[in-house]
């Protein structure tokens, strides 16, 4: 029998449709070149400032290190020169002593030979010559040692700076040494001494009520005085306005003294029987109440209260009539 026909192949599945393409990206925003340039300039200024500051700090550090190195080198050179001077002096002294010893030994040997070969007079002359040579050599050695031990000449003194020309607030002119005016305390003390006996503005000067004007017309503050002051400057003094003294009020008028009320009249005393004894010693002196009633004037023409006088001793009473 014929084989069965092979089954027909299944149809291939249809391909899936392709996905739609993605949308194009949005266009980039426009670049602000002016802002970028401004930021770049600012960054460059910051970088330049930092580099400048670092360069200044490095230069300052190098200057300090250079000054320290120069000072150390100068100190080392001074110590080295001193050491060489001392060594040279010691060597010169040793050489002089050695030469003197050799010369003395040689002269002594020659003297001994001369003494042995000649008379005593020749030996004495040789000995004298040897002693003279030794003394001369010792003197030369001492002189050489003294010259070698002499210190080096001192450096020349610093140049004297020109003084400060000062004109005070009352028109007086002074010439102050710059060394005394280099500090504000020194200048202030000189001005205080100049106005020590000035009665009107002396106390204001002592309290610092003034300005110091430089040659260019600017006020020099105490905080920058030591930085800006220079020799041969002309300094002018200007006082601050002096406040006027307040007028004193006149003293109040004294209050009137209170009037003492009049005392009541005393009751009359009864007359004693018999004749009244006369009292010697002049007219009677009125009392204070009577003087007050009379207006403060006594019978003798004086003013004020009665004058208190010592009463004389009363004589014995006269006999009754």
Automatic annotation (TrEMBL):
Transmembrane regions: none
Top-rank taxon, per record: Eukaryota
Boundaries of every Ubiquitin-like domain copy: 160-242
GO cellular component: actin filament
Record GO biological process: actin filament polymerization
Segments for region (Disordered): 1-37, 141-163, 242-321
Regions of compositional bias (Basic and acidic residues) in chain numbering: 266-276
Stretches with biased composition (Pro residues): 1-31, 251-265
PANTHER family: PROTEIN DIAPHANOUS
Protein name stated in the entry: Ubiquitin-like domain-containing protein
Phylogenetic lineage: Eukaryota, Fungi, Dikarya, Ascomycota, Pezizomycotina
